Amino acid sequence: MYVCNPVIKDGMKKYVVYSLKGSAIHDDEVRRFSDFFSLRKKLVERWPGIFIPAIPPKKAVGNLDDNTIETRMRLLNSFCYKLSKSSFLFESEEVKLFQSNTLEVAKAIDKLKAHNDGEILEKYKVAFPDYYDAYDLILGKGKLKEFQNFLKKTLTNIKVCTIMYIIYK
């Protein structure tokens, strides 16, 4: 998946759309910067503890400058490339929805519900089967449950730290 052909659109307010290309994209899809922002935000929420590549920050003024548009496109391509290197992220529900031909991608992504701790653990078991199998072999049967409890506590701590960061940011 890659980003190209930025075009300034004129509506109530001017904005930029980027063409989205790739083997998983059926038609010539276009995405706004806000769509990428929603995707990253949802990935961070639904994949706690996993590194999610950065995107450029939002910019209130000057976001239609040629230099800003080109820089954003380059950084969005870097984001897409790094996502593709993590198959579990690239094949995730969030990215599939982002690549779909849904008209209002950001709204559709924002509607995805947050996972509870059990759902996250199950998702991680599927995403990282070798790790879970190796852990169980090394420590013996029954240790996986102990590890799951550790992860639940860790996820709670990550959530608390995230909330604290947002509050005091």
Can you give keywords for this protein?
alpha+beta, 169 residues, three-stranded antiparallel β-sheet
The spatial strand order of the largest sheet comes to 1-2-3
The biggest beta sheet is recorded as:
3 strands, antiparallel
Number of helices: 8
Low-pLDDT stretches are none
> What's the pLDDT, averaged over the residues?
85
Helix content: 55-70%
Order of helices and strands: EEEHHHHHHHH
- Please compute the radius of gyration using only Cα atoms: 19 Å
Distance between the termini: 32 Å
Strand percentage lies at: 5-15%
Q: Work out the number of β strands.
A: 3
Large-scale geometry: globular
Helix/strand/pairing category: alpha+beta
Write up what this structure looks like:
The chain contains eight helices and three strands, in the order E-E-E-H-H-H-H-H-H-H-H. The chain has helices spanning 33-46, 66-84, 87-90, 93-99, 105-110, 117-127, 129-139, 143-168; strands at 2-10, 14-21, 29-32. The protein is globular.
Brief summary of the model shown:
The two termini are 32 Å apart. 58% of the residues lie in helices and 12% in strands. It is an alpha+beta fold.
Secondary-structure map with pairings?
Blueprint: E1 2-10, E2 14-21, E3 29-32, H1 33-46, H2 66-84, H3 87-90, H4 93-99, H5 105-110, H6 117-127, H7 129-139, H8 143-168
Antiparallel strand pairs: 1-2, 2-3
